[in-house]
From TrEMBL:
<keyword id="KW-0418">Kinase</keyword>
<dbReference type="GO" id="GO:0016787">
    <property type="term" value="F:hydrolase activity"/>
</dbReference>
<dbReference type="InterPro" id="IPR010624">
    <property type="entry name" value="KaiC_dom"/>
</dbReference>
<keyword id="KW-0597">Phosphoprotein</keyword>
<keyword id="KW-0808">Transferase</keyword>
<dbReference type="InterPro" id="IPR027417">
    <property type="entry name" value="P-loop_NTPase"/>
</dbReference>
<dbReference type="Pfam" id="PF06745">
    <property type="entry name" value="ATPase"/>
</dbReference>
<dbReference type="InterPro" id="IPR003593">
    <property type="entry name" value="AAA+_ATPase"/>
</dbReference>
<dbReference type="GO" id="GO:0004674">
    <property type="term" value="F:protein serine/threonine kinase activity"/>
</dbReference>
<feature type="domain" description="KaiC">
    <location>
        <begin position="249"/>
        <end position="480"/>
    </location>
</feature>
<dbReference type="GO" id="GO:0005524">
    <property type="term" value="F:ATP binding"/>
</dbReference>
<keyword id="KW-0378">Hydrolase</keyword>
<protein>
    <recommendedName>
        <fullName>non-specific serine/threonine protein kinase</fullName>
        <ecNumber>2.7.11.1</ecNumber>
    </recommendedName>
</protein>
<dbReference type="InterPro" id="IPR051347">
    <property type="entry name" value="Circadian_clock_KaiC-rel"/>
</dbReference>
<feature type="domain" description="KaiC">
    <location>
        <begin position="10"/>
        <end position="246"/>
    </location>
</feature>
<keyword id="KW-0677">Repeat</keyword>
<dbReference type="InterPro" id="IPR014774">
    <property type="entry name" value="KaiC-like_dom"/>
</dbReference>
Length: 498
């Protein structure tokens, strides 16, 4: 958060809640602000929302279109279901002269002068409080030289911001060389970016490059363009959500042997990572804890990356854990997430919203899916850390699952996040008695003691079963244990017939 006497500056709200949060309430009034971004980044959509919010507040608003016709601007608004009846749209592109009148240099200068006079005449007629000029690219081309271009921008700055006018200039700079000339003249600069991953939908993000004498939230903030306009997801800062200390409280898993392994259950405000190979039962174990919380009347938010909602509910029923009644009652809220269509910022915003609406437990199944929504492993670790810190401040029990690469023997994780979690539960396959079995162990718990035993883990149609400690085996976690005949240990769980 950048601060510079920001709260004292009157703001013009954009009508986009997430963006107003980033800007500290909106754009500072009576100033020129620059929206920079490549075509398709969302500049026009954002500026139209800015104007419509002004109309809603009873202000006069003017949209000056230099590169688009009035009909094209109206079609953009119609695609979002907007009515621009309260916004004056001035089509400056209609002022183009004929080919005979505009040939080389002097006609371009004449055309620039005519456009500027026409624009200022329209501003004087409408007397707007909010003005959008789309775009600076046309002025740059008509001016032809940097000196003339700067003079025209200075003239606009002097004449547009008077009489309580807040102005947005739109610009399409070259990605390799942003126009620092316009940036230096503007009071605030917001840069919009459109990223194109190798697979999936485009991702968009913005950042406030500068905002003189005003507070704003720094860094990149993901946003999406949906029917109805921009949705901005401000970067989560856990330090802004500090809460007071509370009495320690345990959250039981609904499985007594597992509670014993965990030293009495899970602690509120902590995160638990369930890690293991594919098919080892990570989601089933997490579902067991979710069902126990729902049975107690707690609200649980489930974000499922790896399977459709119907599959999740069917798998839960197959192990004696019926979540459907809790979902119908609103106690369990299942959100199916497509990592190819959502950014990490939007997902974390959804998690934050669920918690602010009363969720006391959050399950993310799995981090592998979240990783696909991240641009890099470094971003994954940083954003997961911030999210877990926020959830801890809100005293939420957080469950995370992560699939490791491999089945038997050495396992590798796509990203090492075990140090972020307060508790780590490890699931493993091992070979014994001519069959493939599953083992469970708690390898880490920050708060309090926990069992260091390794137990057999068996999902059944009537629920999960945990066996006694496997003291008669050595090397279970390697996948191929050795039986020690002289050791006193419990027998393996009987395998149920299909």
């Amino acid at each position: 958060m950048s601060t510079a006497n920001g709260p004292l500056t009157p703001r013009a709200a954009t009508g986009i809640p997430g963006l107003d949060d980033v800007l500290g309430g909106g754009f500072p009034r009576r100033r020129i602000h620059l929206l920079q971004g490549s075509p398709g980044a969302g500049k026009t959509t954002l500026s139209l929302q800015f104007l419509m919010e002004g109309v809603r507040q009873g202000e006069s608003c003017l949209y000056i279109a230099m590169s688009e016709s009035r009909e094209e601007v109206a079609s953009v608004a119609a695609s979002h279901g907007w009515d621009l009846g309260g916004v004056a749209v001035f089509d400056a592109s209609e002022l183009d002269g004929s080919e005979e009148e505009n040939t080389i240099l002097e006609p371009a200068e004449v055309e620039l002068g005519e456009r500027m006079r026409a624009i200022l005449t329209e501003v004087e007629r409408v007397q707007p409080n909010r003005v959008v000029l789309d775009s600076c690219t046309e002025l740059r081309l008509l001016a032809q030289t940097p000196i003339r271009y700067r003079r025209q921008l200075l003239a606009l700055k002097r004449q547009l911001v008077e009489k309580d006018r807040t102005v947005l200039l739109l610009d399409n700079p070259s990605p390799e060389s942003p126009d620092v000339l316009v940036q230096s003249l503007a009071h605030g600069v917001v840069v919009l970016e459109q990223l194109n991953p190798e697979y999936g939908a485009e991702r968009r993000r913005l950042r406030v490059l500068k905002m003189r004498a005003a507070s704003y939230r720094g860094g990149y903030h993901d946003f999406a363009i949906r029917t109805g306009g921009l949705r901005v997801f401000p970067r989560l800062v856990a330090a802004e959500h500090r809460a007071g200390a509370t009495q320690p409280e345990r959250c039981l898993t609904g499985l007594e042997p597992l509670d014993r392994m965990l030293g009495g259950g899970l602690d509120r405000g902590t995160s638990t990572l369930v890690v293991g190979p594919a098919g080892a039962g990570k989601s089933t174990l997490a579902t067991q804890i979710v069902e126990a919380a729902a049975r107690r009347g707690e609200t649980v938010a489930v974000f499922a990356f790896d399977e459709p909602r119907a599959t999740l509910l069917a798998r839960a029923r197959a192990t004696g854990l019926d979540l459907a009644p809790y979902e119908e009652a609103g106690t369990v809220q299942v959100t199916q997430v497509d990592p190819a269509e959502i950014s990490a910022g939007e997902l974390i915003h959804q998690v934050r919203t669920a918690v602010e609406r009363g969720a006391r437990m959050v399950l993310i199944d799995s981090l592998n899916g979240l990783l696909q929504a991240m641009p890099s492993e470094g971003s994954l670790v940083l954003q997961v850390h911030e999210m877990l810190s926020f959830l801890a401040e809100k005293h939420v029990v957080t469950l995370l699952t992560m699939a490791q690469h491999g089945i038997i023997g050495e396992m590798l994780a796509p990203a090492d996040v075990t140090y972020l979690a307060d508790t780590v539960v490890l699931l493993r396959y091992f070979e014994a008695g001519g069959g493939v079995r599953k083992a469970i162990s708690v390898v880490k718990k920050r708060l309090g003691a926990h069992e260091s035993t390794i137990r057999e883990y068996l999902p059944t149609a009537t629920g999960l079963r945990l066996g006694a400690p496997l003291t008669a085996f050595r090397g279970v976690l390697t996948g191929v244990p050795e039986f020690e005949p002289g050791a006193a240990g419990a027998q393996l769980l009987p395998v149920q017939s299909p």
